[in-house]
Amino acid sequence: MMAMGQFTDHRRFQSMNGQGKILKVVDIVVVIVIVISFLLFWLLGQSDHLSGYVEVWKDGQLVMVLRQDGRYELRSKDRHVMDIVLADGKVHVENSDCPLKICERTGKVGPNGTIVCVPNKVVVKFVGKSEVDVMTW
Q1: How do residues 77-115 score in pLDDT, each as one tens digit?
Q2: Sheet with strand 61-66: strands edge to edge
Q3: Residues in the chain, pLDDT under 50
Q4: How far apart are CA 121 and CA 75, in angstroms?
Q5: What is the pTM of this model?
Q6: What CA–CA distance (Å, rounded) separates 122 from 116?
Q7: 4: in domain
Q8: How far is Cα 60 from Cα 37, in angstroms, rounded to an integer?
Q9: Residues 123 and 56 both lie in one domain
Q10: Do residues 60 and 107 share a domain?
Q11: What residue numbers bound the domain in which 36 lies?
């Protein structure tokens, strides 16, 4: 004799016989594919901190392309013009021989940033993708 509340639904157990496993092989494969795709997107997003390169233009001519961190000296006709420093995904100018040093005071710029030195006719352009679409001051 069954007590009250011990009612057994045989239909529920019939659906679990052999074919109705809780997780089918197809379900496990789908979960694995989803996890792998999330990991790939995360790893691609965590690639190197430098998401581009730096072009250095002098007198309208491309004279340098910088892809690795370091200090680079720009010379013109055997004279020092400026040092260009690329570090931590930013670029800036040091030791410029121009009179007002506006290019030095521009500071560090990241992707899509530009530093201009008018007296030396130099443009330092960071070409790359930025995480920010628009920046306002």
Answers
A1: 889 999 999 998 899 999 999 999 999 999 999 888 999
A2: 61-66, 52-58, 122-128, 114-117
A3: 13-15, 17, 48
A4: 12
A5: 0.60
A6: 6
A7: no
A8: 44
A9: yes
A10: yes
A11: 10-45
